[in-house]
């Protein structure tokens, strides 16, 4: 008996041991956790310090951990079956979770704390997160934002504050209208005789559509409808409309509701459609903080129309942070896997190479890891801008028009800033999920490693609460407007403050300075962004002043340019925010590593946009070859710390929910066990064998036709 | 009663009519089919001629239509429930379809005809297509490619030719090894005493994984395993291994099989895992066309190792064509929807604008439409190269080494060419599905418009049968090698023939010529591609000759550059193939439109890679501003013909399977009806209301704790 077959007999007894065949050692199964452990041991910084940096301090990390532990222990959040549930099963589970999430929200100590809790729940079950989010984040926020104090307290007294005998949804979009809210066609006609509104869906295309919670859950909706008084159309306002009878959940008269059914992702949320057939509600159900109507049908419009459309901005801001959250999860999976997986060997006869060691694999994962760190810094700044602007607006009296105007200017800056950041962060995260999936090869396509479900659940962020393309074009329009303001000598908001230095930025060049100096890099970004905006303003002026186009025609003509300047300005913003956050908050133990990460992000971003740096002359072609070399070098530096950098994200295996991404790196064991656990079968014979497989495999042909039998003798 | 409320009462009787509110007409529901019809009427070319052009002639179109009609009429392919089936339901349906598809294959008149039929079935049900594809495309192709004539006829006699009491699968990848086939760890140890092989899985990481058909269907597998003879490892060879007892489908002794379970997409195919525990098979079950072993254990290796790994190439070639097929479907949906959907109005008071009229929307859809046309031209060329190379190889005697070497050179060229085209076409199609989904806003996220399922089913093409990144890097390596050959004065394959003109291409510039001249554009592409390759060859020479790196170290160091040159060379190939196909096959009636489409594709591609055109000086910065203007202009031209260009794809509503993409453009009606049909509910109350919704909404708090009761009096 040969030594190889002896060895194989041995292995039959212990299938997890290593193998030696023809003198070559095969330890594919046992090596991965050791490989990951070895990588972890290279970490040169204090991982805990970095977690504090990301979370915004020790206190915040500890609060996160308290909530995470509570979720992880709670049987209702048990998630082993997450990838195997059908749409209907998912709905049942998400409803059960909604009850628990409600407890978590009611126990929160502040609005920020609610955000923290929801954001963590959103990582575990995006469908359930959305399901409760439509009530608190859309219905209740909408009532708070657009209703009077009396209206808010009325609806809270009916249960809207704690979801008792009450569940709100948000009926804005219609099947025929999404982004253009002002074009909605549902009508709310005032009937002076009864002091009521008649809510009506005039035709099928005005059916409320995509309404989260409408199909199964909601008792009330915040309906966007055209206010019609005495035949006059006052445009779209907000109305609370009861949908179901509280005590038996049956539909109110005139309400038709249906289930939107299968979606790409987030099946846990029961999106539905609603048609109103002349449904009557009291006049007082119209939200009247800014718009008012009295019993005689006299309408008072708000001093500034923008005030009415603020309900979505909070969601937009949190999506920048959510982009970071979801990116954390998938980067952790792919980077751990890359540190544990080997494939091909560089030199024949040597062990196979860890895929994390391949230059191109590093380039796929590590600049995106760096991008996620950048997103976090930008998200934090955006939250600050958001809380400051909304606090100011909330504390401003509606009767003081000058103060209101100032508050609205801040909100407008917030709109433009959040538009670009929301769009590019949600796209960025989608691209990160997609790239990390592909970086795990076939195992990335398995349902159990989370990428497919994660992508499907995520990408709706690129469309809802402001379609990314529309937001981007709108942010681009704002940038042109800022450029025009500057030419008139007016001041512009702080986010575009660098445009004030246009003249010096136009002259900026590398000029022999160190490409790796963060100051130089930031100057490069500001120079290119400012010049791209300025160039587009030139084109705008040319189109309007020389070619005779109207402003809106010129904006339309410059759509591609608007998209591009919004993109480059936003990237510039993230690069700056990242370096700023390091300067302000990084402790000495993590500063060096973070700076490497930020440099990788900034250099890789330059490489991706090299045409602009070339066009505006900050770098020449040789400089850009150097940038490519530096990206390689910084990939290699960051690679050494990559496991520490993902460990710092502080997500437990429960939150990772992907066996190839577990902390211990024992990828094949966890993955195999998960697949077997979720797909038990003793005989590997499908239940449809007798009904449809055997009849096919054992089919007989009909006898051959012998036409001679048909012939006359 | 006001006129508005009168009108509304009227509408309650006829909810599909148009509405006038406050003098403004609302015809959102009734207008879409008219809008689409109006666009269709603009078509200035013969749509039928264009279909012939795309299909490769009238005869081919008619054959396609015959098959399409047969599929569409066949109740087994009824697909209204496609998006609602669970994984298990999908498996049952796909098995039933496998039987029918088998009939279609057996009735085909040639290999090309099989491709045609499978490709159309793949549009309807990618899972079922894969399920039967693993037998015919992998198992049987593998036996044909690697087996002797006797082996092939033996397995055909056992039912492999017509799937009678036989179903083959393809056990190549293992959980621990995918792309690196040479590193697989399953062993096939020769036992001279019994003239058998012992097939064994030495440890868990060598478990065969992702094996399509293994979980439920296959009776046999083509197993990749290391040939071990007398303790010596001869590397990976192919063995037919019976998995199940034919008559009751139970597993053979020593075979363990399990279900891989949930995947991102293609749940219709039962991917499984297999472990072999010392399974014995006759020596004659090893495929022995190139590798041979006699009963004494004498092994003959093939003259050229590449011969053994040819099984995947056919799949790779067909994926370029499949990329076009899938792109057709989603482009048709999004472009029809864009012609029927209105959103915002350019000027207040005017009707809303069709979204197809927005500059940016045109830029999202139309260059990608043009790209799909380009893919088609490249796919056709690739098929020609494929059939010519494989025919040559098949007709070459294995004993004639010189002839074999020549045939293998052709196969190598095919490998490199198909690698780049497979990678960038499958990525391109994935991006097209993703962009077209987003271009349909929220409705793109609905399960019923097909994008989500389509994306999930599609993207595995980027990973399987050669991971795109690995293929791209390998294509990049070939390009550097070609560049090195040229410097040595050797000839290179025709796909890189333009490198022979490097010297003149280096000097090429626009020099006042017309940017819109196809000849100039092709020269621009060749110039940039040749120089990018040449620049990388310079870097390679520098690394190996001056910096002392080995060739493999230098290739590794230049990974990013390899990726980039493969990308740019492949795009250049597609641009050239597109213009060539127009020159050779476009009839006068379609030539003008096709040339506009090709120009849009080529100009848009230049814009996307403007840094290279700037770097190598073919265009300057002002030229590139012009390119952007031309892209806008050509978007507008192609926009006028966009409906005709998608109609020419010739996909019926059945094949489109997305209500917003139907031929008649009645988007809201079809979409609403589909959603209601698939989600019937009379009371909109979920089945879990009593069990989990009511207890939550009507929950009572425990009484408040009064600690005073616990205090001592």
UniProtKB/TrEMBL annotation, chains A, B:
Keywords: FAD, Fatty acid metabolism, Flavoprotein, Lipid metabolism, Oxidoreductase, Peroxisome. SUPFAM superfamilies: Acyl-CoA dehydrogenase C-terminal domain-like (SSF47203), Acyl-CoA dehydrogenase NM domain-like (SSF56645). The active site is at residue 465. GO terms for cellular component: peroxisome. Residues 46-158 form the Acyl-coenzyme A oxidase N-terminal domain. Residues 309-480 form the Acyl-CoA oxidase C-alpha1 domain. It is found in: Peroxisome. Pathway: Lipid metabolism; peroxisomal fatty acid beta-oxidation. Its main location: other. Transmembrane segments: none annotated. InterPro entries: ACOX_C_alpha1 (IPR055060), Acyl-CoA_ox_N (IPR029320), Acyl-CoA_Oxase/DH_mid-dom (IPR006091), Acyl-CoA_Oxase/DH_mid-dom_sf (IPR046373), Acyl-CoA_oxidase (IPR012258), Acyl-CoA_oxidase_C (IPR002655), AcylCo_DH-like_C (IPR036250), AcylCoA_DH/ox_N_sf (IPR037069). Residues 169-279 form the Acyl-CoA oxidase/dehydrogenase middle domain. GO terms for molecular function: acyl-CoA oxidase activity; FAD binding; fatty acid binding. Residues 517-697 form the Acyl-CoA oxidase C-terminal domain. It catalyses: a 2,3-saturated acyl-CoA + O2 = a (2E)-enoyl-CoA + H2O2. FAD binds at residues 173, 212. Its cofactor is FAD. GO terms for biological process: fatty acid beta-oxidation using acyl-CoA oxidase; lipid homeostasis. Pfam families: ACOX (PF01756), ACOX_C_alpha1 (PF22924), Acyl-CoA_dh_M (PF02770), Acyl-CoA_ox_N (PF14749). Heteropentamer composed of five different subunits. Belongs to the acyl-CoA oxidase family. PANTHER family: ACYL-COENZYME A OXIDASE-LIKE PROTEIN (PTHR10909:SF352), ELECTRON TRANSPORT OXIDOREDUCTASE (PTHR10909). This is Acyl-coenzyme A oxidase. It comes from Sugiyamaella lignohabitans.
């Amino acid at each position: 008996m040969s030594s190889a077959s002896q060895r194989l007999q041995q292995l039959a007894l212990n299938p997890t041991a290593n193998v030696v065949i023809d003198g070559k050692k095969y330890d594919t199964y046992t090596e991965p956790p050791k490989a990951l452990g070895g990588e972890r041991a290279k970490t040169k910084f204090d991982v805990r310090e970095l977690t504090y940096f990301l979370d915004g301090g020790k206190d915040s990390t500890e609060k996160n951990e308290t909530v995470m532990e509570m979720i992880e222990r709670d049987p209702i959040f048990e998630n082993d079956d997450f990838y195997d549930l059908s749409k209907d099963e998912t709905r049942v589970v998400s409803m059960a979770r909604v009850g628990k999430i409600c407890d978590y929200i009611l126990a929160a100590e502040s609005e920020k704390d609610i955000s923290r809790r929801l954001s963590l729940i959103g990582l575990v079950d995006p469908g359930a997160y959305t399901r409760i989010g439509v009530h608190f984040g859309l219905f209740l926020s909408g009532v708070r934002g657009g209703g009077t104090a009396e209206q808010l307290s009325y609806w809270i007294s009916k249960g809207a504050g704690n979801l008792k005998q009450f569940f709100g949804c948000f009926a804005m979009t219609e099947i025929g209208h999404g982004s253009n809210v002002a074009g909605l066609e549902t009508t709310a006609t005032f009937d002076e005789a009864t002091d009521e509104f008649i809510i009506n869906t005039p035709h099928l295309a005005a059916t409320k559509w995509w309404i989260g919670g409408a199909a199964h859950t909601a008792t009330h909706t915040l309906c966007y409808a055209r206010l019609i008084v005495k035949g006059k159309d006052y445009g779209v306002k907000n109305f609370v409309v009861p949908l179901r009878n509280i005590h038996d959940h049956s539909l109110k008269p005139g309400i038709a509701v249906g289930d939107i059914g299968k979606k790409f992702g987030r099946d846990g949320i029961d999106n539905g459609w609603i048609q109103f057939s002349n449904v009557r509600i009291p006049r007082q159900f119209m939200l009247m903080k800014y718009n008012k109507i009295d019993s005689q049908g006299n309408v008072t419009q708000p001093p500034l129309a923008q005030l009415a459309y603020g309900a979505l901005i909070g969601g937009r801001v949190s999506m920048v942070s959510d982009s970071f959250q979801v990116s954390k999860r998938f980067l952790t999976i792919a980077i751990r896997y890359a540190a544990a997986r080997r494939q091909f060997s560089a030199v024949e006869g040597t062990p196979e190479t860890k895929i994390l060691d391949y230059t191109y694999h590093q380039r796929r994962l590590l600049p995106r890891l760096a991008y996620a760190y950048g997103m976090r810094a930008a998200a934090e700044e955006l939250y600050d801008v958001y809380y400051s602007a909304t606090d100011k607006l909330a504390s401003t009296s509606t009767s003081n028009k000058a103060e209101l105007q100032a508050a609205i200017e801040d909100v407008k800056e917030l709109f433009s800033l959040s538009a670009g950041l929301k769009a590019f962060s949600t796209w960025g995260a989608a691209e990160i999920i997609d790239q990390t999936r592909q970086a795990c090869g076939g195992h990335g396509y398995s349902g159990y490693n989370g990428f497919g479900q994660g992508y499907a659940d995520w990408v709706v962020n690129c469309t809802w609460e402001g379609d990314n393309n529309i937001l981007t074009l709108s942010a681009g329009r704002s940038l042109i407007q800022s450029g025009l303001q500057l030419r008139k000598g007016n001041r512009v908001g702080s986010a575009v403050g660098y445009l004030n230095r246009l003249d010096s930025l136009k002259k900026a060049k590398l000029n022999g300075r160190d490409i790796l100096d963060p100051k130089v890099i930031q100057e490069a970004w500001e120079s290119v962004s400012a010049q791209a905006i300025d160039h587009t303003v030139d084109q705008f002026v040319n189109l309007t002043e020389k070619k005779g186009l109207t402003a809106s025609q010129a904006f339309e003509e410059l759509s591609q340019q608007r998209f591009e300047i919004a993109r480059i300005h936003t990237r510039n913003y993230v690069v700056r925010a990242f370096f700023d956050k390091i300067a302000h908050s990084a402790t000495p133990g993590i500063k060096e590593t973070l700076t490497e990460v930020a440099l990788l992000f900034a250099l890789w971003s330059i490489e991706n946009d090299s045409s602009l740096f070339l066009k505006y002359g900050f770098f020449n072609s040789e400089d850009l070859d150097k940038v490519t070399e530096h990206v390689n070098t910084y990939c290699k530096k960051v690679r050494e710390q990559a496991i520490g950098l993902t460990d710092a994200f502080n997500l437990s295996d429960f939150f990772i929910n992907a066996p190839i991404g577990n902390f211990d790196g024992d990828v094949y064991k966890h993955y195999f066990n998960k697949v077997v656990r979720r797909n038990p079968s003793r005989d590997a014979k499908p239940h449809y064998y007798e009904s449809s497989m055997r009849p096919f495999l054992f089919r007989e042909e009909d006898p051959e036709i012998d036409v001679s039998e048909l012939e006359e003798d």
